[in-house]
TrEMBL record:
One of its GO terms (biological process) is amino acid transport. This is Cationic amino acid transporter C-terminal domain-containing protein. InterPro entries: AA/rel_permease1, CAT_C. Its main location: membrane. Residues 524-562 form the Cationic amino acid transporter C-terminal domain. The lineage of its organism: Eukaryota, Metazoa, Chordata, Craniata, Vertebrata. Pfam families: AA_permease_2, AA_permease_C.
Amino acid sequence: MVWGLPSAASLTRFCQKLNRQKPLEESPREMSPQRHLTTLDLTLRAVGGTVGLGLYVLTGTVAKGMAGPAVVVSFSIAAMASLVGALCYVELAAHVPHTGSPYLFTYVSMGELWAFLIGWNTLLGHLITGAALARVWSSYVDVIFSHRIHSFIEDHVGIWQVPFLAQNPDFLAAGIILSVSTFVSCKARVSSWLNRTFSAISLAVIIFIIILGFFLARPHNWSAEEGGFAPFGFSGIMAGTTTCFYAFVGFGAIAASSEEAQNAKRTVPMAITISVGLVAGANILVSTVLTLMVPWHSLHPYWALADAFHQRGYSWAAFIVAVGAICAMNTAILNIILFLPRITYAMARDGLFFQVFAHVHPRNQVPMVAIMVLGVLMAFLALLLDHEALVQFLCLSAMITRTVVTTSIIILRFRKAPPASSQGPGSPVGTEQASAPQPGQLRPALRPYLCFLGGCRPGAAVTWALGVLVASAITLDCVLVFGDSALNLPTWGYTLLLLLSSATFLLSLLVLGAHQQQRRQDTFQVPMVPLTPALSILLNIFLMLQLSYVTWLSFSIWLLIGEWG
Protein backbone atom coordinates (compact mmCIF):
# COMPACT_ATOMS: atom_id res chain seq x y z
CA MET A 1 0.00 0.00 0.00
CA VAL A 2 1.43 3.43 -0.97
CA TRP A 3 1.76 6.20 1.58
CA GLY A 4 -1.30 8.40 1.85
CA LEU A 5 -4.80 8.19 3.18
CA PRO A 6 -5.84 4.73 4.38
CA SER A 7 -8.22 2.80 2.21
CA ALA A 8 -11.77 2.03 3.29
CA ALA A 9 -10.89 -1.65 3.73
CA SER A 10 -7.93 -0.93 6.01
CA LEU A 11 -10.00 1.55 8.02
CA THR A 12 -12.72 -1.07 8.41
CA ARG A 13 -10.19 -3.66 9.58
CA PHE A 14 -8.77 -1.14 12.06
CA CYS A 15 -12.22 -0.40 13.49
CA GLN A 16 -13.00 -4.10 13.74
CA LYS A 17 -9.77 -4.64 15.63
CA LEU A 18 -10.64 -1.87 18.09
CA ASN A 19 -14.05 -3.45 18.74
CA ARG A 20 -12.66 -6.98 18.91
CA GLN A 21 -13.82 -8.72 22.06
CA LYS A 22 -11.90 -11.25 24.09
CA PRO A 23 -13.50 -14.72 24.11
CA LEU A 24 -14.06 -16.42 27.43
CA GLU A 25 -11.59 -19.25 27.69
CA GLU A 26 -10.51 -21.30 30.64
CA SER A 27 -6.87 -20.83 31.49
CA PRO A 28 -4.70 -23.91 30.98
CA ARG A 29 -4.38 -25.82 34.22
CA GLU A 30 -0.62 -25.60 34.26
CA MET A 31 -0.77 -21.80 33.81
CA SER A 32 -3.64 -21.14 36.24
CA PRO A 33 -2.66 -19.77 39.65
CA GLN A 34 -3.31 -21.90 42.70
CA ARG A 35 -6.82 -21.44 44.12
CA HIS A 36 -5.94 -20.88 47.76
CA LEU A 37 -7.70 -17.61 48.76
CA THR A 38 -10.65 -18.01 51.13
CA THR A 39 -13.52 -15.61 51.77
CA LEU A 40 -11.58 -14.23 54.74
CA ASP A 41 -8.48 -13.62 52.61
CA LEU A 42 -10.47 -11.79 49.94
CA THR A 43 -12.40 -9.72 52.48
CA LEU A 44 -9.26 -8.67 54.33
CA ARG A 45 -7.58 -7.81 51.05
CA ALA A 46 -10.48 -5.49 50.13
CA VAL A 47 -10.98 -4.00 53.60
CA GLY A 48 -7.26 -3.56 54.14
CA GLY A 49 -6.88 -1.80 50.81
CA THR A 50 -9.85 0.51 51.41
CA VAL A 51 -10.31 1.34 55.09
CA GLY A 52 -6.99 3.14 55.34
CA LEU A 53 -7.76 5.36 52.38
CA GLY A 54 -11.24 6.33 53.56
CA LEU A 55 -10.54 6.86 57.26
CA TYR A 56 -7.05 8.27 57.33
CA VAL A 57 -6.98 10.12 53.98
CA LEU A 58 -10.45 11.23 52.91
CA THR A 59 -12.25 11.85 56.22
CA GLY A 60 -10.22 14.86 57.24
CA THR A 61 -10.07 16.27 53.71
CA VAL A 62 -13.85 16.11 53.19
CA ALA A 63 -14.78 17.29 56.69
CA LYS A 64 -12.35 20.21 56.60
CA GLY A 65 -12.93 21.67 53.18
CA MET A 66 -16.09 20.19 51.62
CA ALA A 67 -18.92 18.99 53.84
CA GLY A 68 -18.16 19.66 57.52
CA PRO A 69 -20.00 17.26 59.86
CA ALA A 70 -22.20 16.32 56.87
CA VAL A 71 -19.29 14.12 55.79
CA VAL A 72 -21.44 11.43 57.42
CA VAL A 73 -24.09 11.99 54.73
CA SER A 74 -21.43 12.06 52.01
CA PHE A 75 -20.10 8.68 53.08
CA SER A 76 -23.64 7.27 53.27
CA ILE A 77 -24.54 8.39 49.73
CA ALA A 78 -21.21 7.15 48.40
CA ALA A 79 -21.78 3.78 50.07
CA MET A 80 -25.24 3.36 48.51
CA ALA A 81 -23.92 4.36 45.10
CA SER A 82 -21.00 1.95 45.46
CA LEU A 83 -23.27 -0.91 46.46
CA VAL A 84 -24.66 -1.05 42.93
CA GLY A 85 -21.13 -1.11 41.57
CA ALA A 86 -20.28 -3.87 44.02
CA LEU A 87 -23.20 -5.97 42.79
CA CYS A 88 -22.02 -5.45 39.21
CA TYR A 89 -18.55 -6.62 40.20
CA VAL A 90 -20.10 -9.71 41.77
CA GLU A 91 -21.88 -10.70 38.57
CA LEU A 92 -18.92 -9.93 36.34
CA ALA A 93 -16.44 -11.68 38.61
CA ALA A 94 -18.60 -14.80 38.53
CA HIS A 95 -19.04 -14.49 34.75
CA VAL A 96 -15.36 -13.81 34.04
CA PRO A 97 -13.31 -15.62 36.72
CA HIS A 98 -9.90 -14.51 35.45
CA THR A 99 -7.12 -12.17 36.52
CA GLY A 100 -7.19 -8.59 35.26
CA SER A 101 -10.60 -7.20 36.23
CA PRO A 102 -12.10 -4.66 35.52
CA TYR A 103 -9.87 -4.50 32.46
CA LEU A 104 -10.88 -8.02 31.43
CA PHE A 105 -14.55 -7.32 32.14
CA THR A 106 -14.41 -4.48 29.62
CA TYR A 107 -12.45 -6.54 27.11
CA VAL A 108 -15.03 -9.32 27.17
CA SER A 109 -18.07 -7.04 26.94
CA MET A 110 -17.09 -3.87 25.06
CA GLY A 111 -13.97 -4.57 23.03
CA GLU A 112 -10.26 -3.89 22.74
CA LEU A 113 -10.28 -0.08 22.63
CA TRP A 114 -12.38 0.36 25.76
CA ALA A 115 -10.40 -2.36 27.50
CA PHE A 116 -7.13 -0.54 26.89
CA LEU A 117 -8.58 2.77 28.08
CA ILE A 118 -9.89 1.20 31.28
CA GLY A 119 -6.64 -0.67 31.87
CA TRP A 120 -4.64 2.51 31.28
CA ASN A 121 -6.98 4.45 33.55
CA THR A 122 -6.79 1.79 36.27
CA LEU A 123 -3.00 1.78 36.07
CA LEU A 124 -2.74 5.52 36.61
CA GLY A 125 -5.37 5.53 39.35
CA HIS A 126 -3.53 2.92 41.39
CA LEU A 127 -0.17 4.60 40.86
CA ILE A 128 -1.51 7.88 42.21
CA THR A 129 -3.39 6.12 45.00
CA GLY A 130 -0.20 4.41 46.15
CA ALA A 131 1.63 7.73 46.05
CA ALA A 132 -1.10 9.48 48.06
CA LEU A 133 -1.20 6.68 50.63
CA ALA A 134 2.57 6.83 51.00
CA ARG A 135 2.43 10.56 51.69
CA VAL A 136 -0.24 10.02 54.36
CA TRP A 137 1.87 7.19 55.83
CA SER A 138 4.77 9.63 55.99
CA SER A 139 2.58 12.23 57.70
CA TYR A 140 1.55 9.84 60.47
CA VAL A 141 5.14 8.72 60.99
CA ASP A 142 5.96 12.41 61.31
CA VAL A 143 3.23 12.71 63.98
CA ILE A 144 4.91 9.97 66.06
CA PHE A 145 8.19 11.92 65.91
CA SER A 146 6.46 15.22 66.81
CA HIS A 147 6.80 16.58 63.25
CA ARG A 148 10.59 16.67 63.43
CA ILE A 149 10.97 14.93 60.04
CA HIS A 150 8.88 17.51 58.20
CA SER A 151 10.65 20.37 59.95
CA PHE A 152 14.08 18.94 59.04
CA ILE A 153 13.21 18.62 55.33
CA GLU A 154 11.64 22.09 55.29
CA ASP A 155 14.74 23.64 56.87
CA HIS A 156 17.20 21.96 54.49
CA VAL A 157 15.20 21.88 51.24
CA GLY A 158 12.88 24.82 51.64
CA ILE A 159 9.27 25.32 50.55
CA TRP A 160 8.26 24.96 46.91
CA GLN A 161 5.53 27.11 45.39
CA VAL A 162 4.85 25.11 42.23
CA PRO A 163 1.27 24.17 41.21
CA PHE A 164 0.39 20.45 41.62
CA LEU A 165 3.70 19.79 43.43
CA ALA A 166 4.13 19.33 47.16
CA GLN A 167 5.68 22.10 49.22
CA ASN A 168 8.74 19.91 49.69
CA PRO A 169 9.83 16.43 48.59
CA ASP A 170 8.70 13.48 50.71
CA PHE A 171 11.69 11.15 50.84
CA LEU A 172 10.06 8.98 53.50
CA ALA A 173 7.03 8.28 51.27
CA ALA A 174 9.25 7.34 48.35
CA GLY A 175 11.32 5.11 50.60
CA ILE A 176 8.36 3.09 51.90
CA ILE A 177 7.15 2.40 48.34
CA LEU A 178 10.57 1.20 47.22
CA SER A 179 10.89 -0.96 50.34
CA VAL A 180 7.48 -2.61 49.84
CA SER A 181 8.21 -3.16 46.14
CA THR A 182 11.48 -4.87 46.96
CA PHE A 183 9.79 -6.97 49.64
CA VAL A 184 6.99 -8.09 47.31
CA SER A 185 9.44 -9.00 44.54
CA CYS A 186 11.49 -11.16 46.90
CA LYS A 187 9.01 -12.41 49.53
CA ALA A 188 5.70 -12.72 47.71
CA ARG A 189 4.66 -15.85 49.61
CA VAL A 190 4.48 -14.15 53.02
CA SER A 191 2.31 -11.29 51.80
CA SER A 192 -0.92 -13.04 52.84
CA TRP A 193 -0.07 -13.37 56.54
CA LEU A 194 1.46 -9.90 56.58
CA ASN A 195 -1.74 -8.51 55.11
CA ARG A 196 -3.76 -10.26 57.83
CA THR A 197 -1.52 -8.89 60.57
CA PHE A 198 -1.66 -5.28 59.42
CA SER A 199 -5.42 -5.51 58.77
CA ALA A 200 -6.08 -6.92 62.25
CA ILE A 201 -4.10 -4.11 63.90
CA SER A 202 -5.86 -1.49 61.77
CA LEU A 203 -9.33 -2.84 62.57
CA ALA A 204 -8.51 -2.96 66.30
CA VAL A 205 -7.43 0.70 66.20
CA ILE A 206 -10.63 1.64 64.34
CA ILE A 207 -12.73 0.05 67.08
CA PHE A 208 -10.63 1.95 69.62
CA ILE A 209 -11.25 5.24 67.78
CA ILE A 210 -15.01 4.66 67.66
CA ILE A 211 -15.35 3.73 71.36
CA LEU A 212 -13.13 6.49 72.76
CA GLY A 213 -14.46 8.97 70.22
CA PHE A 214 -18.06 8.50 71.33
CA PHE A 215 -16.91 8.89 74.95
CA LEU A 216 -15.33 12.25 74.05
CA ALA A 217 -18.16 13.40 71.78
CA ARG A 218 -19.56 16.90 72.16
CA PRO A 219 -22.90 17.50 70.38
CA HIS A 220 -22.12 21.22 70.52
CA ASN A 221 -19.65 20.73 67.66
CA TRP A 222 -22.60 20.13 65.33
CA SER A 223 -24.45 23.25 66.49
CA ALA A 224 -24.98 26.47 64.56
CA GLU A 225 -22.32 28.23 66.63
CA GLU A 226 -19.67 25.99 65.02
CA GLY A 227 -21.10 26.34 61.52
CA GLY A 228 -23.92 23.82 61.71
CA PHE A 229 -24.18 20.25 60.49
CA ALA A 230 -23.91 21.13 56.78
CA PRO A 231 -21.95 24.40 56.59
CA PHE A 232 -21.37 24.09 52.83
CA GLY A 233 -24.94 23.11 51.97
CA PHE A 234 -26.10 20.52 49.47
CA SER A 235 -23.33 21.34 47.01
CA GLY A 236 -20.76 20.64 49.69
CA ILE A 237 -22.38 17.30 50.53
CA MET A 238 -22.33 16.23 46.87
CA ALA A 239 -18.73 17.41 46.45
CA GLY A 240 -17.87 15.36 49.51
CA THR A 241 -19.75 12.38 48.07
CA THR A 242 -17.65 12.60 44.93
CA THR A 243 -14.48 12.39 47.01
CA CYS A 244 -15.82 9.75 49.41
CA PHE A 245 -16.72 7.60 46.41
CA TYR A 246 -13.10 6.54 46.16
CA ALA A 247 -13.28 5.07 49.67
CA PHE A 248 -15.28 2.12 48.27
CA VAL A 249 -13.07 0.76 45.51
CA GLY A 250 -11.35 -2.02 47.43
CA PHE A 251 -13.65 -4.75 46.15
CA GLY A 252 -11.98 -4.35 42.77
CA ALA A 253 -9.04 -6.20 44.32
CA ILE A 254 -11.40 -9.08 45.08
CA ALA A 255 -12.56 -9.30 41.48
CA ALA A 256 -8.95 -9.12 40.30
CA SER A 257 -8.04 -12.06 42.55
CA SER A 258 -11.06 -14.21 41.67
CA GLU A 259 -8.90 -16.62 39.66
CA GLU A 260 -7.05 -17.50 42.89
CA ALA A 261 -10.19 -17.89 45.01
CA GLN A 262 -11.56 -21.14 46.34
CA ASN A 263 -15.00 -21.67 44.76
CA ALA A 264 -15.05 -18.19 43.19
CA LYS A 265 -18.80 -18.32 42.46
CA ARG A 266 -19.46 -18.39 46.20
CA THR A 267 -16.52 -16.70 47.90
CA VAL A 268 -16.28 -13.66 45.61
CA PRO A 269 -19.91 -12.44 46.09
CA MET A 270 -19.70 -13.02 49.85
CA ALA A 271 -16.36 -11.21 50.17
CA ILE A 272 -17.54 -8.20 48.15
CA THR A 273 -20.80 -7.86 50.10
CA ILE A 274 -19.08 -8.15 53.47
CA SER A 275 -16.29 -5.74 52.56
CA VAL A 276 -18.66 -3.01 51.33
CA GLY A 277 -20.71 -3.28 54.53
CA LEU A 278 -17.66 -3.17 56.79
CA VAL A 279 -16.07 -0.24 54.99
CA ALA A 280 -19.32 1.76 54.95
CA GLY A 281 -19.94 1.19 58.65
CA ALA A 282 -16.38 2.07 59.63
CA ASN A 283 -16.30 5.27 57.57
CA ILE A 284 -19.67 6.51 58.80
CA LEU A 285 -18.94 5.80 62.48
CA VAL A 286 -15.44 7.26 62.42
CA SER A 287 -16.51 10.41 60.58
CA THR A 288 -19.29 10.82 63.15
CA VAL A 289 -17.02 10.65 66.19
CA LEU A 290 -14.35 12.76 64.47
CA THR A 291 -16.65 15.73 63.92
CA LEU A 292 -18.22 15.32 67.37
CA MET A 293 -14.88 15.29 69.19
CA VAL A 294 -13.61 18.64 67.86
CA PRO A 295 -15.02 21.40 65.62
CA TRP A 296 -14.73 20.41 61.98
CA HIS A 297 -12.95 23.62 60.99
CA SER A 298 -10.09 22.94 63.43
CA LEU A 299 -9.13 19.57 61.88
CA HIS A 300 -5.90 19.01 60.03
CA PRO A 301 -6.73 17.43 56.64
CA TYR A 302 -3.66 15.16 56.57
CA TRP A 303 -3.75 13.58 60.04
CA ALA A 304 -7.24 14.47 61.20
CA LEU A 305 -7.85 11.50 63.50
CA ALA A 306 -4.60 11.81 65.44
CA ASP A 307 -5.01 15.59 65.51
CA ALA A 308 -8.51 15.31 67.03
CA PHE A 309 -7.27 13.25 69.99
CA HIS A 310 -4.28 15.55 70.39
CA GLN A 311 -6.59 18.59 70.60
CA ARG A 312 -8.58 16.89 73.34
CA GLY A 313 -5.42 16.26 75.36
CA TYR A 314 -5.14 12.51 74.66
CA SER A 315 -1.65 12.40 73.17
CA TRP A 316 -1.30 8.72 74.01
CA ALA A 317 -4.46 8.00 71.98
CA ALA A 318 -3.07 10.05 69.10
CA PHE A 319 0.02 7.82 69.17
CA ILE A 320 -2.18 4.68 68.97
CA VAL A 321 -4.13 6.18 66.08
CA ALA A 322 -0.87 6.96 64.27
CA VAL A 323 0.26 3.35 64.68
CA GLY A 324 -3.06 2.09 63.32
CA ALA A 325 -2.83 4.50 60.40
CA ILE A 326 0.66 3.30 59.57
CA CYS A 327 -0.50 -0.33 59.61
CA ALA A 328 -3.50 0.56 57.42
CA MET A 329 -1.27 2.43 54.96
CA ASN A 330 1.15 -0.50 54.86
CA THR A 331 -1.71 -2.84 54.00
CA ALA A 332 -3.09 -0.54 51.32
CA ILE A 333 0.30 0.08 49.71
CA LEU A 334 1.05 -3.64 49.79
CA ASN A 335 -2.27 -4.47 48.10
CA ILE A 336 -1.71 -1.85 45.40
CA ILE A 337 1.78 -3.11 44.62
CA LEU A 338 0.38 -6.64 44.49
CA PHE A 339 -2.45 -5.55 42.17
CA LEU A 340 -0.55 -3.39 39.67
CA PRO A 341 1.51 -6.26 38.18
CA ARG A 342 -1.74 -8.20 37.67
CA ILE A 343 -3.29 -5.56 35.43
CA THR A 344 -0.07 -4.95 33.49
CA TYR A 345 0.49 -8.71 33.14
CA ALA A 346 -3.04 -9.20 31.78
CA MET A 347 -2.66 -6.32 29.31
CA ALA A 348 0.80 -7.46 28.18
CA ARG A 349 -0.44 -11.03 27.74
CA ASP A 350 -3.20 -9.70 25.44
CA GLY A 351 -0.74 -7.61 23.43
CA LEU A 352 -2.00 -4.24 24.70
CA PHE A 353 1.07 -3.39 26.80
CA PHE A 354 4.84 -3.84 26.72
CA GLN A 355 5.66 -7.55 26.61
CA VAL A 356 8.38 -7.23 29.24
CA PHE A 357 5.64 -6.75 31.84
CA ALA A 358 4.36 -10.28 31.09
CA HIS A 359 7.71 -11.83 32.08
CA VAL A 360 7.63 -13.84 35.32
CA HIS A 361 10.86 -14.50 37.18
CA PRO A 362 11.60 -18.26 37.01
CA ARG A 363 12.75 -18.51 40.63
CA ASN A 364 10.46 -16.14 42.53
CA GLN A 365 7.45 -16.66 40.21
CA VAL A 366 6.59 -12.95 40.34
CA PRO A 367 6.67 -10.30 37.57
CA MET A 368 9.75 -8.57 38.98
CA VAL A 369 10.16 -6.14 36.07
CA ALA A 370 6.60 -4.89 36.45
CA ILE A 371 6.89 -4.59 40.23
CA MET A 372 10.15 -2.66 40.19
CA VAL A 373 9.31 -0.35 37.26
CA LEU A 374 5.89 0.54 38.66
CA GLY A 375 7.33 0.82 42.16
CA VAL A 376 9.95 3.34 41.03
CA LEU A 377 7.32 5.34 39.12
CA MET A 378 5.00 5.36 42.14
CA ALA A 379 7.86 6.42 44.41
CA PHE A 380 8.65 9.31 42.06
CA LEU A 381 5.02 10.48 42.22
CA ALA A 382 5.01 10.21 46.02
CA LEU A 383 8.24 12.20 46.20
CA LEU A 384 6.95 15.23 44.31
CA LEU A 385 3.16 15.39 43.90
CA ASP A 386 0.84 17.29 46.21
CA HIS A 387 -1.68 15.21 48.16
CA GLU A 388 -4.70 17.48 47.83
CA ALA A 389 -4.28 17.87 44.08
CA LEU A 390 -4.53 14.09 43.62
CA VAL A 391 -7.79 13.36 45.44
CA GLN A 392 -10.20 14.53 42.73
CA PHE A 393 -8.23 12.80 40.00
CA LEU A 394 -8.44 9.53 41.92
CA CYS A 395 -12.20 9.93 42.22
CA LEU A 396 -12.59 10.61 38.49
CA SER A 397 -10.53 7.54 37.64
CA ALA A 398 -12.61 5.33 39.94
CA MET A 399 -15.98 6.63 38.72
CA ILE A 400 -15.12 6.26 35.04
CA THR A 401 -14.05 2.67 35.65
CA ARG A 402 -17.21 2.01 37.66
CA THR A 403 -19.41 3.50 34.94
CA VAL A 404 -17.85 1.35 32.22
CA VAL A 405 -18.13 -1.78 34.38
CA THR A 406 -21.79 -1.01 35.07
CA THR A 407 -22.41 -0.52 31.36
CA SER A 408 -20.77 -3.90 30.75
CA ILE A 409 -23.52 -5.53 32.84
CA ILE A 410 -26.17 -4.28 30.43
CA ILE A 411 -24.16 -5.38 27.39
CA LEU A 412 -23.48 -8.88 28.71
CA ARG A 413 -27.04 -9.35 29.98
CA PHE A 414 -28.57 -8.73 26.55
CA ARG A 415 -25.92 -10.67 24.63
CA LYS A 416 -26.69 -14.16 23.37
CA ALA A 417 -25.20 -16.77 25.68
CA PRO A 418 -22.84 -19.38 24.16
CA PRO A 419 -24.52 -22.78 23.76
CA ALA A 420 -23.80 -25.37 26.39
CA SER A 421 -21.61 -28.20 25.21
CA SER A 422 -23.79 -30.79 26.88
CA GLN A 423 -26.82 -29.92 24.84
CA GLY A 424 -26.91 -31.48 21.45
CA PRO A 425 -28.72 -29.86 18.57
CA GLY A 426 -31.23 -32.67 18.34
CA SER A 427 -32.07 -32.92 22.02
CA PRO A 428 -35.43 -31.74 23.34
CA VAL A 429 -33.75 -29.09 25.46
CA GLY A 430 -31.86 -27.76 22.47
CA THR A 431 -35.08 -27.61 20.43
CA GLU A 432 -36.82 -25.74 23.23
CA GLN A 433 -33.98 -23.23 23.46
CA ALA A 434 -34.00 -22.71 19.70
CA SER A 435 -37.70 -21.81 19.76
CA ALA A 436 -37.42 -19.62 22.86
CA PRO A 437 -36.55 -15.93 22.43
CA GLN A 438 -32.83 -15.29 22.62
CA PRO A 439 -31.16 -12.47 24.61
CA GLY A 440 -31.31 -9.25 22.61
CA GLN A 441 -34.59 -10.13 20.92
CA LEU A 442 -37.86 -8.37 21.60
CA ARG A 443 -40.04 -10.09 24.19
CA PRO A 444 -42.87 -12.05 22.47
CA ALA A 445 -45.58 -10.46 24.61
CA LEU A 446 -44.52 -6.96 23.50
CA ARG A 447 -44.11 -7.61 19.78
CA PRO A 448 -47.68 -6.56 18.87
CA TYR A 449 -47.14 -3.19 20.63
CA LEU A 450 -43.56 -2.56 19.49
CA CYS A 451 -43.78 -3.93 15.97
CA PHE A 452 -41.39 -1.24 14.68
CA LEU A 453 -38.61 -2.90 16.74
CA GLY A 454 -39.46 -6.43 15.65
CA GLY A 455 -37.59 -6.13 12.35
CA CYS A 456 -34.27 -5.27 13.98
CA ARG A 457 -31.63 -7.94 14.14
CA PRO A 458 -31.03 -9.34 17.66
CA GLY A 459 -29.06 -6.84 19.72
CA ALA A 460 -29.27 -3.89 17.31
CA ALA A 461 -32.08 -2.09 19.13
CA VAL A 462 -30.37 -2.79 22.45
CA THR A 463 -27.12 -1.24 21.22
CA TRP A 464 -28.85 1.91 20.00
CA ALA A 465 -30.95 2.18 23.16
CA LEU A 466 -27.88 1.83 25.38
CA GLY A 467 -26.07 4.55 23.45
CA VAL A 468 -29.06 6.87 23.71
CA LEU A 469 -29.38 6.08 27.44
CA VAL A 470 -25.78 7.09 28.14
CA ALA A 471 -26.04 10.22 25.99
CA SER A 472 -29.32 11.28 27.64
CA ALA A 473 -27.82 10.62 31.09
CA ILE A 474 -24.91 12.93 30.26
CA THR A 475 -27.31 15.59 28.97
CA LEU A 476 -29.62 15.32 31.97
CA ASP A 477 -26.75 15.54 34.46
CA CYS A 478 -25.24 18.52 32.62
CA VAL A 479 -28.58 20.33 32.86
CA LEU A 480 -28.85 19.55 36.58
CA VAL A 481 -25.28 20.60 37.38
CA PHE A 482 -24.68 23.51 34.98
CA GLY A 483 -28.21 24.60 34.08
CA ASP A 484 -28.31 27.66 36.32
CA SER A 485 -24.70 28.80 35.93
CA ALA A 486 -22.71 27.78 32.87
CA LEU A 487 -25.55 27.29 30.38
CA ASN A 488 -27.30 30.62 31.13
CA LEU A 489 -30.64 29.25 29.95
CA PRO A 490 -34.00 30.95 30.54
CA THR A 491 -36.45 29.17 32.79
CA TRP A 492 -38.50 27.77 29.92
CA GLY A 493 -35.38 26.55 28.09
CA TYR A 494 -34.02 24.91 31.24
CA THR A 495 -37.35 23.18 31.89
CA LEU A 496 -37.72 22.04 28.28
CA LEU A 497 -34.21 20.60 28.13
CA LEU A 498 -34.73 18.88 31.48
CA LEU A 499 -37.99 17.28 30.33
CA LEU A 500 -36.59 16.19 26.95
CA SER A 501 -33.47 14.58 28.44
CA SER A 502 -35.50 12.88 31.18
CA ALA A 503 -38.04 11.55 28.69
CA THR A 504 -35.26 10.27 26.39
CA PHE A 505 -33.57 8.53 29.31
CA LEU A 506 -36.79 6.83 30.39
CA LEU A 507 -37.72 5.87 26.81
CA SER A 508 -34.34 4.23 26.18
CA LEU A 509 -34.68 2.44 29.50
CA LEU A 510 -38.08 1.09 28.48
CA VAL A 511 -36.71 -0.08 25.12
CA LEU A 512 -33.96 -2.00 26.91
CA GLY A 513 -36.43 -3.55 29.32
CA ALA A 514 -38.61 -4.70 26.43
CA HIS A 515 -35.91 -7.09 25.20
CA GLN A 516 -35.04 -10.56 26.39
CA GLN A 517 -31.98 -10.94 28.63
CA GLN A 518 -29.89 -13.80 29.95
CA ARG A 519 -31.13 -15.65 33.00
CA ARG A 520 -28.54 -17.77 34.80
CA GLN A 521 -29.34 -19.85 37.85
CA ASP A 522 -25.79 -20.94 38.66
CA THR A 523 -24.37 -17.47 39.42
CA PHE A 524 -25.42 -14.23 41.09
CA GLN A 525 -27.08 -11.62 38.85
CA VAL A 526 -27.74 -7.96 39.55
CA PRO A 527 -31.46 -7.43 40.31
CA MET A 528 -33.72 -5.17 38.24
CA VAL A 529 -31.58 -4.89 35.12
CA PRO A 530 -31.49 -2.50 33.26
CA LEU A 531 -32.97 -0.14 35.91
CA THR A 532 -30.30 -0.70 38.55
CA PRO A 533 -27.21 -0.17 36.34
CA ALA A 534 -28.94 2.72 34.51
CA LEU A 535 -29.47 4.60 37.77
CA SER A 536 -25.87 3.86 38.71
CA ILE A 537 -24.66 5.33 35.41
CA LEU A 538 -26.81 8.43 35.96
CA LEU A 539 -25.47 8.96 39.49
CA ASN A 540 -21.84 8.32 38.52
CA ILE A 541 -21.97 10.88 35.72
CA PHE A 542 -23.62 13.39 38.08
CA LEU A 543 -20.80 12.96 40.59
CA MET A 544 -18.11 13.18 37.90
CA LEU A 545 -19.48 16.53 36.75
CA GLN A 546 -18.85 17.90 40.26
CA LEU A 547 -15.11 17.71 39.62
CA SER A 548 -13.05 20.65 38.36
CA TYR A 549 -12.10 21.21 34.74
CA VAL A 550 -8.42 20.88 35.70
CA THR A 551 -9.10 17.29 36.77
CA TRP A 552 -10.78 16.52 33.46
CA LEU A 553 -7.96 18.18 31.54
CA SER A 554 -5.32 16.13 33.36
CA PHE A 555 -7.26 12.94 32.75
CA SER A 556 -7.65 13.73 29.04
CA ILE A 557 -3.91 14.30 28.72
CA TRP A 558 -3.24 10.93 30.32
CA LEU A 559 -5.60 9.20 27.88
CA LEU A 560 -3.90 10.92 24.95
CA ILE A 561 -0.52 9.71 26.18
CA GLY A 562 -1.90 6.17 26.26
CA GLU A 563 -3.32 6.45 22.75
CA TRP A 564 -0.07 7.81 21.29
CA GLY A 565 1.95 5.19 23.17
